[in-house]
Design brief:
The protein has 476 residues and is of the alpha+beta class. Among the domains are: 4-136, no CATH class; 274-399, no CATH class. Helices cover 51% and strands 16% of the residues. The protein contains 23 helices and 18 strands. Strands 6, 9, 10, 16, 17 and 18 form a 6-stranded antiparallel sheet that branches. The longest helix is centred in the last third of the chain and has 24 residues, at 402-425.
Length: 476
C-alpha cells in the first residue's frame, strides 16, 4: 500500500500539531493528524480541479458524503477546525439552492507557504484504496472520475500521460512564486499541479452529458506553467483553432445553408438535433445573406476583432476596456444547474486587456445565455445579427443548450475524429488535448498542424486553404 502525499500550509501544519496535542491530552477519541491534514489539504486540491475558479474568495465546498467516506464522524474534525480558528463557515447547505457547505481558511493561513505532507496512517490509506477501486468499478455514465472509462473512450489522448511527461520543478516554482502575494488562489492551484506532475498523479474526466470534452491535468494547467512541461526532454507546443466555437458554429451554419443533415451527422451533432428539428430549423424565415456574411467573417477574418468594431465599448480611467456583469453564485450540486444572482453584490466589473478579449467574452455570453437574456451585450448581438440570433434561439428553445451543441461538435471533430486518426497515422507521435487545441512535442508540431488541417477539412468540409489561417501554432 503506497503512502499518499498531500499539500498543506506550513504554518497551518505547525499550529495543527500543537492544537491536536493539546486537545488529545484531555479528550478521547483522539483527533488523528493524518485525517486532519487530509481534510485541510482539500482547501488546496479541490479548487485546482477547475481552472476558471482561480478566484480570490478562497471558498471551498465540502461534500458531506465524501467526507463521511473518509471518517464517519467527520463533523468532529470540522468543529475542531472552526473552534481552533483554522477555518470558518461561509455558506450553509441549502436544498433550495442546491449548494453544499462552504468554508474558507482563516486569514492567518491564507497566504502562507505550501509544503508536502506524507500520509502514512494505514486505515486512512485503505480507505483511499477502497475509494479508488469503487471509482474504477462504477458505471461509466456516472459523473465520477474513472480512468478505465476514459482509457476506453479516448485512449489516444490519455496514453501519453506516463512517466515521460515531466515538469521542470525549479522553473515551475519560480513561475508561481510571485502569485503567493499577487493571487494566492493561483499559487495554491499551481502548487497542486506541480505536485501532480511530479508524482505522476494523472487525472481524467469526461462528462458526455455536459460538454463531452476531455478534462485532464493538462487542461487545468495555466499557460505560464505549460512552458515547464516536457516529454522525453522535448518541450510541448500546441496547435490551436482560432475562434474555435464561432468556427464550429460556422460549420453548422454551412449545413444549415445547404440543408445538409448528412453534414450534421458527420460533425457529431445528430444526437443533439434530430432530423425533424433540423428540417424545422431550415424552414425559418431568415436573411441568408446575413448568415453567409457571418460565416465568411469567421472563416476569412479574425471574428472577434471584427465583432469588436460593432460593439459599444467602455473604457475605465486607466484606459482599459471593461463591462459590468451579473455576479452569479455557481450551483455546487450537479443536480442544480441554474445559477443564482449574488444579491449582496449583484454586478461586478470585468476588465479586458484588448477590445478583442472583450468581444470574445461578449460572444461567449451570447452562446451561453438564455435566448431571452436582457444583457446589453446580448441585445447588441441581436441587433447586429437578427437572423443568427433567430437560429440560436430555435436551437436553445427546441433542441439543446447552444453551448452544449458547440462543445459537442468541437469535441467530436477535434478529439474523436482528428486526434484519433492522427494517432493511428503516427503511432509514435505523443498527443494530448486542451479543449480546442491539440498538443505534441516541439519536434512534431509542424507535422501536427499539417495533419489537423487535412483531417479537420475532411470532417467539416471546410477547404484546407481556409483552415491554414484558422489553425495556428501556439508555442508556449
Amino acid at each position: 500500500m503506497e503512502n499518499k502525499t498531500v499539500l498543506i500550509q506550513k504554518t497551518l501544519l505547525k499550529d495543527l500539531e500543537g492544537f491536536i496535542l493539546e486537545l488529545n491530552e484531555y479528550n478521547k477519541p483522539h483527533i488523528k493528524l493524518d485525517i486532519a491534514v487530509y481534510f485541510l489539504s482539500l482547501f488546496i486540491s479541490l479548487p485546482s480541479h477547475y481552472r476558471n475558479t482561480e478566484k480570490e474568495n478562497y471558498l471551498v465546498s465540502l461534500n458531506s458524503e465524501k467526507l463521511k467516506g473518509i471518517f464517519s464522524k467527520y463533523t468532529k474534525y470540522l468543529d475542531f477546525f472552526i473552534d481552533s480558528k483554522i477555518i470558518e463557515k461561509a455558506f450553509n447547505y441549502s436544498t433550495d439552492k442546491g449548494t453544499s457547505n462552504q468554508y474558507r481558511l482563516t486569514e492567518k493561513y491564507l497566504f502562507d507557504d505550501i509544503i508536502e505532507y506524507i500520509i502514512t496512517d494505514k486505515s486512512l490509506l485503505k480507505k483511499f484504496e477502497k475509494e479508488k477501486n469503487k471509482k474504477l468499478n462504477d458505471n461509466a455514465n456516472s459523473i465520477s472520475d474513472k480512468k478505465e472509462f476514459h482509457l476506453k473512450k479516448r485512449p489516444h489522448l490519455v496514453r501519453y500521460f506516463d512517466d515521460n511527461l515531466t515538469i521542470d520543478i525549479m522553473l515551475a516554482f519560480e513561475i508561481i512564486k510571485p502569485y503567493k502575494e499577487l493571487n494566492y488562489a493561483k499559487y495554491q492551484s499551481g502548487m497542486q499541479l506541480i505536485s501532480e506532475y511530479n508524482k505522476k498523479d494523472w487525472k481524467y474526466s469526461i462528462n458526455p452529458n455536459s460538454d463531452n470534452r476531455l478534462h485532464t491535468n493538462l487542461t487545468r494547467t495555466n499557460k505560464e506553467l505549460r512552458k515547464c512541461l516536457y516529454y522525453k526532454e522535448d518541450r510541448l507546443s500546441a496547435v490551436d483553432i482560432r475562434a474555435s466555437q464561432p468556427f464550429f458554429f460556422a460549420v453548422f451554419l454551412k449545413a444549415f445553408l445547404k440543408k445538409d443533415y448528412k453534414l450534421v451527422k458527420q460533425i457529431g451533432a445528430s444526437k443533439l438535433i434530430s432530423k425533424k428539428k433540423f428540417e424545422e430549423l431550415c424552414n425559418l424565415d431568415v436573411d441568408r445573406d446575413e448568415i453567409i456574411g457571418f460565416v465568411e467573417i469567421i472563416l476569412t477574418e479574425d471574428f472577434y476583432t471584427n465583432f469588436s468594431n460593432h460593439l459599444e465599448i467602455q473604457n475605465d480611467e486607466e484606459g482599459k476596456t471593461y463591462k459590468m456583469k451579473i455576479n452569479y453564485i455557481e450551483p455546487r450540486s450537479k443536480l442544480k444547474k441554474r445559477r443564482k444572482i449574488d444579491f449582496e453584490q449583484p454586478r461586478i466589473k470585468e476588465s479586458f486587456e484588448t477590445k478583442r478579449d472583450y468581444a470574445k467574452s461578449v460572444m461567449m455570453e451570447v452562446f451561453f445565455s438564455s435566448p431571452r437574456t436582457t444583457t446589453k451585450e446580448a441585445k447588441q448581438f441581436r441587433t447586429i445579427y437578427p437572423s443568427i440570433s433567430k437560429i440560436m434561439k430555435f436551437i436553445k428553445d427546441e433542441c439543446v443548450n447552444f453551448d452544449k451543441l458547440l462543445s459537442h461538435i468541437e469535441s467530436y471533430c477535434l478529439l474523436d475524429y482528428v486526434a484519433l486518426r492522427i494517432n493511428k497515422n503516427h503511432k509514435n507521435m505523443p498527443i494530448w488535448s486542451i479543449h480546442d487545441s491539440l498538443v505534441t512535442t516541439k519536434q512534431n508540431i509542424h507535422l501536427l498542424k499539417e495533419e489537423v488541417e487535412q483531417l479537420l477539412s475532411e470532417v467539416t468540409t471546410i477547404k484546407k486553404d481556409i483552415l491554414k489561417d484558422i489553425i495556428v501554432i501556439d508555442n508556449w
